[in-house]
Design goal:
With 124 residues, this protein is mainly α. 81% of the residues lie in helices and 0% in strands. The protein contains five helices and no strands.
Length: 124
Amino acid sequence: EVGLKVPVLFFLLLFGGVGIAIGIAMGGARVIRTVGERITTLTNTRGFAVEFSAATTVLVASKLGLPVSTTHAAVGGVLGVGLAKGIEAVNFAIVFKIMLYWILTVPVSALSCMVVFKILQVFI
């Protein structure tokens, strides 16, 4: 309903899409490698379980109207599959580092937005 009431300018959508594409190009392979190899060892069947659990989580949350991150769901699935093998099968140093980065994302994003806003405010 919000999308129908508040129009989003095309250049903002383009700006967001370009930002996502640049982010994936810069660090996507590293993120995939970390989640797929460094948290725990994955086999074909474990990979299926990870993807199935992540997809189920995203679908249920979306159906309930809850905002959810597919990356968070995937990391949760990898963690769950690793813990099914035993607590020693999970590299918790990597998991804690990922969680720290998730927490830092909010203030860093806020500061970045403030800087961009102030720059645009000067020129517009």
